Amino acid sequence: MLDKLPTLTETVAIHGLRADKSLGQHFLLDLNLTRSIARLAKPLAGHHVAEVGPGPGGLTRALLLEGAESVLAIEMDARFFPPLDDIARASGKLTVHHGDALRLDIAEALPAPRKIVSNLPYNVGTKMLVDWVTTQPRFWEQLVLMFQLEVAERICAQPGESAYGRLAVLCQSVASTRIAVEVPARLFTPPPKVDSAVVVLDPLEQPFTELKALGELTQACFGQRRKMIRASLKPYAKRHDLTLADWLERAGVEPTARPETLPVSAFHRLVEAR
Ligand code: SAM
């Protein structure tokens, strides 16, 4: 029974769990807050949830209390294994994977239908997200992820906004994206320097599928975002044996346009017109 466990604050004290900054550790110890984050992933019933970086288990407990079918928690810091084992025993629905989430094939480790719900470590969160949105076939039904506010804004940005770039184009090619809630730094233990936000990604009915090519193209476009597209894509066109002007015309993209003003669909046309 989860309600028989020590509180999260007591758990941290009992196990002497000081946050390790090198692992991006900032904890959420208020179960009301973690339950409200878990509820953003509703419905959880019937879904298997992967949680990267459970730490002392605040969000883990919330996911179980909100009805997840099962939770796979992936943690590299061994200090958290004993309190996570306590949650596993009390719930009977938690499996703890010891190791680096970047090296785990979640689709293999967890049955479908899957969601990923996590308060991600800041240093590797963006890399994990890009891996998950570009993996094909898509293996998740929903992503509910906490990032630094600045990263959340980059995921959800629209053309013309300063935060718009490669991350927005890749994510919005496969999912609708929204910032569901902002979480001020003071609600974490210890408080990080910046505020955070939870982003919800729901899969599009017709996602773009040429994601490897899109990854390379957006790298070329946004590597030099201030340049006009005809300049930023020149080396790419050469590498791919494309006549730049013809290619841009086929894609319906103005040579003088700047990448940060182009809608996501323009990047898809550029990939398709190669
Ligand atoms: N979910 C907890 C919470 O909200 O209180 C902790 C979140 S803390 C921001 C990030 C957690 O990710 C830490 O527990 C850290 O040890 C873990 N972590 C960092 N890098 C990781 C990786 N590559 N794979 C798995 N876990 C990782």
Number of domains: 2
Strand order of the largest sheet: 3-2-1-4-5-7-6
**Overall outline:** elongated
Taking pLDDT < 50 over at least 5 consecutive residues as the criterion, the unreliable ranges are: none
User: Element order, helices and strands?
Assistant: HHEHEHEHEHEHHEEHHHHH
Total number of helical segments?
A: 13
- The CATH topology of the largest domain comes to Rossmann fold
**What structural category characterises the helix and strand content?**
alpha/beta
Q: Report how far the terminal alpha carbons are from each other.
A: 58 Å
- Reading off the top of the CATH hierarchy, the class of the largest domain is best stated as Alpha Beta
The portion of residues forming beta strands comes to 15-25%
- The total strand number stands at 7
Helicity level, as a percent range?
25-40%
The main β sheet shows up as: 7 strands, mixed
Please provide a brief summary of the model.
It is built from 13 helices and 7 strands. It has 274 residues and is of the alpha/beta class.
Explain how this protein is built.
The chain has 274 residues and is α/β, with parallel strands linked by helices. It folds into 2 domains: 2-203, Rossmann fold (3-Layer(aba) Sandwich), CATH 3.40.50; 211-272, Helicase, Ruva Protein, domain 3 (Orthogonal Bundle). Helix content is 38%, strand content 17%. It contains 13 helices and 7 strands. It has a 7-stranded mixed sheet with strand order 3-2-1-4-5-7-6, with helices on both faces. α12 crosses α13. The longest helix has 13 residues, at 211-223. The termini are far apart. The model has no long low-confidence stretch (mean pLDDT 96). Bound molecules: S-adenosylmethionine. Residues 23-28, 52-55, 58-59, 74-77, 100-102, 119, 121, 124 line the site of S-adenosylmethionine.
